[in-house]
Amino acid sequence: MEKEVEVLVIETMVMRLTNKETLRYLDEHGHPMSLANYYKIKSRLQKDTEQRKYEFIKSGGLLTQHMERIDQLETALRLSWENYQAEFDNFKKQKILESIVTIQPLLSKYYEATQYIIEHENKGLADRRHLQLSTERNTSHE
To answer: What is the pLDDT of residues 54-65, one digit of tens each?
Structure first.
């Protein structure tokens, strides 16, 4: 029952419903509640999301996924250029150019996101090292 309510609350967040629409939606799905209770569940879910995000970044899964996607997009871009060079039909060449133009912003976004992830991981490592050194210094003086 708890998970069902959480799923419904997530759905209301995704749909960006107003407070009134949210309460009606929850009621229609068999889980009437007060706005205060809704906000309590929503807040808990948002905190859990932040923790899951941190764990995902910490595990390296996000960086690995981004690197794989970059490799895929770069391969698609390279093959598109090869197809463009091999094509003689101007209409088909134009279509290939359009696909290349479509790939480039995606690739840029992945580069930016990956840079952010790497910087975030490095900051986290630096913070942990600083904390570890501080702890070691404090224990060695005792």
So the answer is: 666 666 666 677
